[in-house]
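TA notes. Do not distribute before section.
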Amino acid sequence: MKLNERSLAFYATCDAPVDNAGFLHKKGGRHPAYHRRWFVLRGNMLFYFEEPASREPVGVIILEGCTVELVEAAEEFAFAVRFAGARARTYVLAAESQAAMEGWVKALSRASFDYLRLVVRELERQLAAMRAGGCPPAPRQPRTLLPKENGCAVWSAEPPAAPAAARPGPQPPPLPPRRRASAPNGPPPSAPFVQLHEWYGREVRALRSQWLRGRAQP
């Protein structure tokens, strides 16, 4: 896939909300030294810069088909972004705290379109159950971060099996009806990726806020 450097630089530094951002220590590809870089996650692209104020990224990592693992390394709070294939590069990164590491591992594991497909299937499953006249099924959650075993743990975004009975408690609010592709208030089908990312990101944040308010109600 060919990537236009000018378009990537614009997307990396545009004013659209980011999915995650912060300093990470990145291990060099040819040398074992770590370099402190400013990382920005937008969709399935992980950009890294010399400094937060830099106008162009030093590089970008496309996160499709990767796995995120905790690893033992010279730096504390280290994790690796691995890709399948004998010649594929492994990116070793290190956060500056345990909380930052867990946040990055979760965000990177959920950044691919494969994870979004799982989320869409889950929402469609709940919507189909509601249209059938039944109660909405309990949402299936991704697995939590596994504890370290032999110095390595893997984050999996694969949903576990559905529980035998739903736990008591507040249910998530009903999902909005499926929006038609020709809806006048939606983005046009030919909209650029930056506009689509900002549009659907705003919608997802609104739905999440509505769900959190529903959970907070007694």
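Switch to the second chain here.
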Amino acid sequence: MSHVEVEYEYEALPENSSLAASLMAGALAGVAEHAVMYPVDSIKTRMQILQPTPQAVYSGVINAASRITTTEGARTLWRGVNSVIMGAGPAHALHFATYEFAKESFGGNATGHHLVAAAAAGACATIAHDALMNPFDVIKQRMQVHGSVYRSVVECASKVYRAEGLRAFYISYPTTLTMTIPFQSIQFATYEYLRKVLNPSGNYDPMTHVMAGGVSGAVAAAATTPLDVAKTLLQTRGESKDVRIRNCNGLFEAGRLIYQRQGLAGFAKGLQPRILGNMPSTAISWSVYEYGKFLLNRENLDKQPIMA
């Protein structure tokens, strides 16, 4: 009996793989991405606060990490991580499942470079992801700010809801989409381009996913930092004692307030930790996700009958 080598393209999930298996790869990628780099995200949030308390004014990432650790304890850098873990799994599962479906629908899996298809698929995935993740992100940032009194995700969610209503969890959603749609479009298009350039054969190569993921995350993070600053203002406005900040509604009002207070430099606040956080987190996310697809396809291949 002769064995015929079966060739398969691991980059697309197998046609007969279950939806649960496909979602699992995305969920693992999401949890890994957010949890590993969470302390850097905490520093970024604090550095983006428009009017921080005197104790929370930092000159840079290292200074912030040192002062937070020595004055508040290392655990402070992880405060609120439960929120992103709870939300990141389901949100990223939905994100990657939507991306795979949209990319296939738009022709992104065909031979060659299809940047528009990848970017469009990334935008579709983002809309679905952010609708689910936005409330968890609000809770996360409320717990990250200096002087936060919340001891748990449930306590934070209930107090914010009672004080500000359901609107508080989605006040930043339009701004979030304004930021994350171009972020994900840039990231997905850059990633798909670099992946095919670095690995034309399409075979599973971890180093390719690490490099392409890291570069795509850095480029997308740098390009969308001004919008991220506005998003942080809207999501943490309820913790501010400044009347104008507390009453700020929407992207344009947030942008105007940032410019009036700090000029153009205000839109670059948190740029360094945002890039430092997104490079490894995006590399981790893509690496975990691509490895998950590789395993799913290998398992699927092993179940196929040997062809004589």
